[in-house]
Write a structure and sequence with these properties.
UROD/MetE-like_sf; Uroporphyrinogen_deCOase; two-stranded antiparallel sheet; 9 strands; alpha/beta; Uroporphyrinogen decarboxylase (URO-D) domain-containing protein; seven-stranded parallel β-sheet; uroporphyrinogen decarboxylase activity; 13 helices; 317 residues; TIM Barrel
C-alpha cells in the first residue's frame, strides 16, 4: 500500500492494515538542519514578478523537492503544501510538480480554514465588541468567508491533484475556547459545518487543526464531521485517551506528542509522550502519529528524530 492509501484508511477510521501507523506533520520547518535549504514559507519573493519564467520554475522545482525530500526521509504519508507565492495559479503549479515527482504516493493538502479564529491581541477587543453589537453583520461575514472558500475549492477540484484541506484555525487557548461554547455555537459551528460539508461533497478530505483546550467545544467540532482533528494539545491538558473514548470511533485523531517536551523536556519524557500517544491512539485505527503542533523552527532535529525512533519501534499494527 502507498502512504496515501494508509492515510486514507486512517482518516476514514477503517480497520488498520498490518504495518506502521501513518505519520505526517502540518509543517516541517527544520529544512535547513535536514537539507541545508530554507523552508519555502521562510523565503522572500518580493522580486517574483521580475524573475524570468525560467527563474520562477527553478524556484518551484526547488520548493517541491524540499516537500518531497521531507516526506521521503521522515516517512510522512501526506504533504501539506505552503505555497509561496500563494496565488491560485502558483498553488496549482506546485501541486502539479509535487504530484509528478511522487507519482501520487502522498496525500496532498493545503490550508482551507475559513471560520473565525482567535484574533491577535490588537484586534481582540474590537472583535468582541463587534460580535456583541452587530451579530447579524458578523454572521453574514462568516457565511461570506465560507462561500468564498468553497468557490476556491471548486476551482481546485476542477484543476485536480489536491486531496485534502487542513483547516488551520486556532479556536482555543490553554484555558479553553476564545469564545464561550454558546458563542461558538452561534458564530463558528454553523459555518464550520457548512465548510466541512462543502469540502466533503466535492470529494476532499478534511483535517481540523486547533491548539489549546478543545474539550469544552469538542462536541461541536465533532458535529462538523471533519475526517480528523489535529493537535490534541497536551500542554492544554487534552488527553488523547479521553478524546479517543469520546469521538475516536468516528473521527481520526492526529497528534498529541507534546511539543513543549520536545523543546524543554528530557529524552525520557519525550519518549514517554510518544509511547502514550501510540498506546491510546492506535487501537482500532483512526490515528495518525504527529506532534501536537508541528516541527517548528528552534526545535532540535534530534528530538523529532527521537519520537520517530519510538514510532518505528512501537507504531506497528
Amino acid at each position: 500500500m502507498t502512504p496515501k492509501e494508509r492515510f486514507k484508511i486512517a482518516l476514514e477510521c477503517k480497520p488498520p492494515p498490518k504495518g506502521r501507523v501513518p505519520h505526517f506533520e502540518l509543517v516541517f520547518f527544520l529544512t535547513m538542519e535536514a537539507f541545508g535549504k530554507v523552508h519555502p514559507s521562510h523565503r522572500s519573493f518580493h522580486q517574483w514578478d521580475q524573475m524570468s519564467e525560467t527563474e520562477r520554475q527553478v524556484q518551484r522545482e526547488d520548493m517541491a523537492d524540499i516537500y518531497v525530500k521531507t516526506a521521503e526521509r521522515y516517512e510522512h504519508s501526506a504533504i501539506f503544501l505552503h505555497p509561496n507565492p500563494g496565488s491560485f495559479e502558483e498553488v496549482c503549479r506546485l501541486i502539479d510538480i509535487v504530484k509528478e515527482k511522487t507519482n501520487d504516493k502522498y496525500m496532498i493538502m493545503i490550508h482551507g480554514g475559513a471560520t473565525y479564529g482567535i484574533p491577535n491581541g490588537t484586534e481582540m477587543a474590537n472583535f468582541s465588541y463587534w460580535l456583541a453589537d452587530k451579530p447579524d453583520e458578523a454572521k453574514k461575514n462568516a457565511d461570506t468567508m465560507v462561500n468564498n472558500a468553497l468557490d476556491t475549492a471548486a476551482k481546485y477540484k476542477k484543476h485536480g491533484g489536491l486531496d485534502c484541506f487542513a483547516m488551520c484555525t486556532d479556536y482555543c487557548l490553554n484555558t479553553g475556547p476564545f469564545l464561550s461554547p454558546g458563542q461558538f455555537s452561534e458564530f463558528v459551528t454553523p459555518y464550520l459545518i457548512k465548510l466541512v460539508k462543502g469540502y466533503r461533497d466535492m470529494g476532499f478530505y478534511t483535517i481540523m487543526h486547533t491548539d489549546g483546550n478543545i474539550m469544552p467545544i469538542l462536541d461541536q467540532l465533532a458535529q462538523s464531521k471533519p475526517h480528523a482533528l489535529q493537535s490534541l494539545d497536551p500542554q492544554a491538558k487534552v488527553d488523547i485517551k479521553e478524546v479517543k473514548k469520546l469521538v475516536g470511533d468516528r473521527i481520526c485523531l492526529i497528534g498529541n506528542v507534546n511539543c513543549g517536551l520536545l523543546q524543554t523536556g528530557t529524552d525520557e519524557q519525550v519518549i514517554e509522550s510518544a509511547r502514550y500517544c501510540l498506546k491510546h491512539g492506535m487501537p482500532g485505527g483512526g490515528y495518525v502519529f504527529s506532534t501536537s503542533n508541528c516541527v517548528y523552527t528552534g526545535m532540535a532535529l534530534k528530538r523529532y528524530e527521537l519520537i520517530l525512533d519510538v514510532w518505528r519501534k512501537k507504531g506497528n499494527y
